Amino acid sequence: MDSDPLQVSMPTSDALIAAGSTGLIYIIDETRVMKRCVYGDHIDLATERQAYKRLGSHPSIAGYYGATKNGSAIILERGKCLRDIYQQVNADDIPIHEKLRWATEAATGLRYIHGKGIIHADVGCSNLILTQDRHLKFIDFAGSSIDGEEATVCYEWCTYRPSVPTISIQTDIFAYGCTIFEIETGRPPYYEFELRSDRTRHIERLYQEHKFPNLQHLMLGELIRNCWDNKFRSMDEVIQALTELTQKINMTTH
């Protein structure tokens, strides 16, 4: 999977499909994309390359194919951002068994990431892609913490509760709970505050006060709440609970 340096032509501006704080994403072909540095800073991409190399091949991690010679871009597996998909479809039209599979794929991917000494630090539907065969995979390790090094990102406005330490396995699990909320409902927690200028501070305060969105009618509500209440100490525990919950749901929906 890792064959850098690669000889790849730089794509034209019309191939740009996404832009984030750490990179610009360009289409190369049907199976690959290029992520280029923002502002010419290669530091974040160096972290991301290190993470992808350590993670290697895993069913829930986007494929890494190498870097360009000057280190200004990396080549990754192509997929569609899960949040973008939910913005185009009604969440109720996605079968619960598929949502459960996505929740499981995200959980096993995050367990694997933690097992490799990495804290993702930005777990969410914006950093999960759906591949052509409709499997879910993690992307974007540019700001992750590796072996306890300081992370250079800190989640997004709807997935973080201020904690000590700032970034940890527990904060990743909290954000995973927010991700599962979005997978089931199609919207991030507290989506109604998205347009507020102080949305991050406002939602963090709500989380600190243990005020969460209503989960009463969600099939995955108990799992989500346990992520938010720090009931899980590891993704192993999350996966065990998710497996048991999946079995119960399958019994009631068949």
User: Approximately how much beta-strand content do the residues carry?
Assistant: 5-15%
Determine and state the CATH class of the largest domain. Answer: Mainly Alpha
Radius of gyration: 18 Å
- Taking all residues together, what is the mean pLDDT? 91
Reading the helices and strands in chain order gives EEEHEEEHHEEEEHHHH
By CATH, the topology of the largest domain is Transferase(Phosphotransferase), domain 1
Poorly predicted segments: none
Strands of the biggest beta sheet: in what spatial order? 1-2-3-5-4
Short characterization:
The chain has 254 residues and is α+β, with helices and mostly antiparallel strands. It has seven helices and ten strands. 36% of the residues lie in helices and 14% in strands.
Provide key terms for this protein.
alpha+beta; Transferase(Phosphotransferase), domain 1; 2 domains; 5-stranded antiparallel sheet; 3-stranded antiparallel sheet
How would you describe the overall organization of this protein?
By secondary structure, the protein is α+β, with helices and mostly antiparallel strands. It folds into two domains: 13-77, Phosphorylase Kinase, domain 1, CATH 3.30.200; 80-253, Transferase(Phosphotransferase), domain 1. 36% of the residues lie in helices and 14% in strands. The protein has seven helices and ten strands. The protein has helices spanning 43-55, 82-86, 96-115, 169-185, 199-208, 221-228, 235-253, and strands at residues 16-19, 23-27, 32-37, 64-67, 73-77, 80-81, 118-119, 128-130, 136-138, 145-146. The strands form three sheets. A five-stranded antiparallel β-sheet has the order 1-2-3-5-4, covered by helices on one side. The chain has a three-stranded antiparallel β-sheet with strand order 6-8-9.
